[in-house]
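Tokens as discussed.
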């Protein structure tokens, strides 16, 4: 039985690169969050939140102990979540350069899709 409401794919290996750099524990937590994004109709903002001031960019939120990671993504036709770059969050605000990088990747994705 496949109870997925959306398919999650990654774009150009940026996400995999981020994932490989993490410990097994963090990787497991990331997969858990992805599973929630795939199966919940309404994903709680604890796990997926839109980034203000961007054009449809979201961050998947991973927390383990006192450590926080963010993985950028966006929806394509409502069902597809494209996983972009990820990073370890060390400050209160998401760094502008990380958001810019994700926006650049999102533009790239749509350009290639045409």
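Sequence:
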């Amino acid at each position: 039985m496949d109870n997925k409401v959306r398919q999650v794919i990654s774009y150009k290996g940026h996400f995999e690169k981020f994932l490989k750099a993490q410990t097994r524990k963090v990787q497991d937590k990331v997969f858990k969050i992805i599973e929630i994004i795939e199966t919940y109709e309404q994903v709680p903002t604890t796990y997926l939140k839109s980034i203000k001031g961007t054009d449809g960019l979201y961050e998947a939120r991973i927390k383990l102990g006192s450590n926080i990671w963010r993985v950028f993504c966006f929806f394509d036709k409502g069902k597809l979540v494209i996983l972009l770059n990820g990073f370890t969050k060390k400050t209160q605000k998401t760094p502008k350069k990380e958001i810019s990088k994700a926006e650049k990747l999102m533009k790239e994705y749509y350009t290639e899709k045409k």
